[in-house]
């Protein structure tokens, strides 16, 4: 009889322990779920700023950089987005002139926009999207005598993904339907060119993905050094898609040759030209929280206007006739680069 009672008592203790343990697990799970749902990172953004607005805001930024009051193009574009509801079809340069008149004796656009509930959002979104385009630099340039000289300044430190001297055409096909594998939106822009055209890194960063993907073929992913932008280069050349030395974890500079245009992809078998037309698929993903990289709330931007803006800064490349590889002719150092990249590769 005593053993029978002890048996039931033991079962009661076990059940109680399980209930307590289950309660603890549930509490931890719901606390984690609540914490995830309460994260305040940006979950949606777009870059539909017109090319004209980008150019005018950039011109103002560069022209005021060494003045008493520097007006960042991020601040200008954020101000304009608040005024036009992020609809850029009616943008005119006079909109920036009106902003400057309103600034008057105020020090910054931030002062002008105090109390505007949308300004901080646009500033964070545009800052993430365009944060690697302008900066202080030292770079090599032709000296007029067949050699190189070092010039320094403030301006564009990002490059067109297509090297100088190579033709391409560009279509605003972001968001178009794609059906290979499953129906989905096209989360990038296609730059049509010739197989073997050198592809360069738009911005300095670290190679975070490389290799074959059945949708993108031979592709590369490069994360900016501030972690906010992930650039995606897909459909690279069959057999030899990447520039020499490019591998997972590689540090690259803006304008550095990283690969070659091709037409691979749309195949479960690697190294197959599954595309009909050679082109570079170029994409830009914003990352405000690491959960966005592969999970929910992914933010891919329409880079059509940005590619047009960067076409004014294309990397000059040279070909090694022995290896058939291309490399940049003029190197660059940007203030925001890590110490490993704060030197010119050829020692000039």
Helix residue percentage: 25-40%
Number of strands: 17
> Approximately how much beta-strand content do the residues carry?
15-25%
The coarse silhouette is globular
Label the structural class. Answer: alpha+beta
The biggest beta sheet is recorded as: 8 strands, antiparallel
Mean pLDDT: 88
The helix/strand series, from N terminus to C terminus, equals HHHHHHEEEEEEEEEEEEEHEHEEE
Task: Outline the low-pLDDT stretches.
Answer: 1-5, 7-11, 24-37
Question: Gap between N and C termini, in Å?
Answer: 94 Å
Number of helices: 8
How would you sum up this structure in a few lines?
Helices cover 28% and strands 24% of the residues. It has 348 residues and is of the alpha+beta class.
Task: Tell me what the structure shows.
The structure is a single chain. The protein has 348 residues and is of the alpha+beta class. The protein has eight helices and 17 strands. It has helices at residues 2-37, 51-64, 73-84, 94-103, 109-112, 119-130, 291-294, 304-310; strands at 134-142, 148-156, 169-171, 177-178, 184-185, 189-192, 198-200, 205-213, 217-224, 229-236, 251-252, 257-260, 279-286, 299-300, 317-319, 326-328, 332-334. Strands 3, 6, 8, 9, 10, 11, 13 and 14 form an eight-stranded antiparallel sheet that branches. Helix 2 (51-64) packs across helix 3 (73-84). It is globular, with a radius of gyration of 26 Å. Residues 1-5, 7-11 and 24-37 have low confidence and may be disordered.
